[in-house]
Each structure stands twice: as structure tokens, then as C-alpha cells.
Amino acid sequence: MSIETADVTLADIEAAAARLAGQVLDTPCLESRTLSQIVGAQVFLKFENLQFTASFKERGALNKLATLVERAEPVRGVIAASAGNHAQGVAHHAQRLGLRAVIVMPQHTPTVKVERTRGFGAEVVLHGETFDAARDHALALAEREGLVFVHPFDDPLVVAGQGTIALEMLRARPDLDTLAIAVGGGGLISGIATAVRALRPGIEIVGVQTSRFPSMVNAVKGTNHPQGAGTIAEGIAVGRPGLLTQRLVKERVDDLLLVDEGDIEQAVLMLLEIEKTVVEGAGAAGLAALLKHPARFAGRKVGLVLCGGNIDPLLLAGIIERGMVRAGRLARIRVAARDTPGVLARITAIVAAAGANIDEVHHQRAFSTLSAQNVEVELVLQTRNPAHVREVIAALQAAGFEAASY
Fold this sequence. Notes:
- The chain contains 16 helices and 14 strands.
- It is of the alpha/beta class and 406 residues long.
- The chain has three domains: 10-55 and 156-322, Rossmann fold (3-Layer(aba) Sandwich), CATH 3.40.50; 57-149, Rossmann fold; 328-405, ACT domain (Alpha-Beta Plaits, 2-Layer Sandwich), CATH 3.30.70.
- The strands form three sheets. It has a six-stranded mixed sheet with strand order 1-2-10-7-8-9, sandwiched between helices.
- Helix 4 (85-97) links the parallel strand 3 (78-81) and strand 4 (101-105).
- The termini are far apart.
């Protein structure tokens, strides 16, 4: 059966659930009362970032691999192309099942994903700038070396494996009326939508893509949104949706929304601060949609899948720092003063008395536009909020200094 005529049914998903039983985690699906209050909808989180590989992807990978092992003819090994999470899922379960695994990843895949994939015993090949380039190289290697290609989304067995998430969510929260699901190639939402349409057809299913990679939105809605070159949600940075998944999304998904990079950053930070859980950009896409389109989900009981937690630590640190700046909890101010002994001590004393903590100090003479008798002091401060920043600046101005944020 070709991919153009393939289908995925509830029976396929239930068979996948039987294969996966005891092999992957039935992750918690819990209400977040704080997020619910913030976004104006009742929010339920499915913590797929708690899987062993920190991603839902191992569900589809295991369903595909277990089916290969069940066949009578021997399998020489498997190969996959992935930005990271599918790679780890294939590598981990191939190792468990005794299969050789080769993974082709784009050259700029976060190091944490590359090293974890190698840690599962896979042979990692870094090739190309995009997922599409990595996939084409993997297909060529599969033919040359006689390996079975495990597609990250455009495969009925992979889609069925991802659909097991919906079975668990509906069992845990049968009163859900809306789902907001991240979309890259479409495997996750296709599997979830297949199960939901069979079991609870009244639930609204909304797909969420980053505006930098709107391939499914363009394919399904006939739009022509431009494609960007990069995104913090690299797990859903897919330039071309699957043939199977595109058809299933058209048939079984109600709507598709786009979110911006800032929405995703904010969602990652909120999940870290409020839920004390680490998610990658793709894993925060559902919450990003609620933040960007609050009226669209107001008053609904919304299920979100935190589909992955493999975020580069340096990227996470940058998101935290940028979020603190936006919230007024990290501020940069410039103070101009006469260059006299003790002036820096006076400035820091005023800042301390105002309740701010100094992160960085830069005492500038040579690269200043002020007169030679003056000095420019740049401060990075830990503050409570924008009002507190204004209080610090007012205190400095009251003491005779020129001060402003920048």
C-alpha cells in the first residue's frame, strides 16, 4: 500500500497501545490552575517530556520497530532522519530490540540531542542545513545499505503510535472539549485526531505551527506564508509536510494557527516557572497558541501536549534572561556623573537602598560622549518589575545623577 492510499484507524492505534504497554510511560495529564487563571481557559497538560527520551516521539518509533521485529524476514537495521527527538526514540528502542540504528541529523541540531542519540548506541551522521536535506540523505543511505527507513511522521505505524497519547488523555480527562497540538510534519496531530474523531468527535482539534515554518498551514489552507531560516521550536521546523499526514490533517483537524517566536519563548518560560517543567520550543507551542489567541480558547477545557523537553541549556538560559528583561526583572540603566572619588560607591549605595541587586557594572570613561570630567556607569540590575526599575532611576535622579534605562 502506497503512502497516498494508506490510512490510520482507531484499531491501528489500539493495536499500537497494546505493543507499547509497559514500554513507554503513560504520562500524567494534569490541570494547571495557575495557567488556567492566566489564559482564561481550563488548561490540562500531558507531560510527554517525562518519557525516557523526553519526547512523545518514541511512541511512534517503537510501534514501527516492534512491527519490524514481528516480521518473519530478518531486518538488517533501521535508519531515520530527525532534528533530534525522533532520532532518540528510534535509537533507544532499536538498542532495546537489538537492531542497528543509523540516524541522519541536520548539521545544526542542538548538541544535547546529538550526544543523547549517540548515547543510545546509534551511528549519527550530520548532514545538511535542514530536515529535508537530512531526510534525502537518509533515504539514499537506506537504499545503499539495505536499511529500513523509519520516517518521523509520514508512516501509518508511526502515526498510530503517536495516537496512543489521545487514548491516555481521553481516559484521564474525558471532559476535554479542545486540544491544541504542535504541528511540524503532522504525525502527532494526525494520530491524536484519528483517535479523537473515533471516540469523541465533538472535541475541537487545533494545530499550532511556528510562523517561521508554516508548511502545514500553507498546504491545508492554501496560504503562502513565507518560510523562515530558523526557529527555537526546531522540533517542528519541517519545510514540507507528509503526504499521509497532510491528508489526515485536512480530514480530521478543525483549524490551524500560527504563533511567533516571542509567544513560544514566553510559553517555555511560563512552564518552567509555573509548572517547574522543562520543555523545548515545540513542546510549548500549544500554550503559545493560548497566549497569542486567548479569545479563541476562552472558557474552554483545553488539552495541551508538552511533546518534548530536549532543549539546549544555552538556549534555555537565553530564554530565561530575555524573559526577565521583558518582565522588568532584569534591567539595564545608564548613569552619568562627575568623575570624583567615591562616586561609584554612592551610585551602588543608592541602588542597594532602592532594593535592586547589581548583576554587572561597567565604568566607562574613554568611550563616552560626556565631557572629560564626567563618567558613564552602566548597570545591569535584578529588579522586581518595571515599576521597581522606575523607582531605582528616580532615586538616582533625586540624588543628582542623570539616569535612564536603555
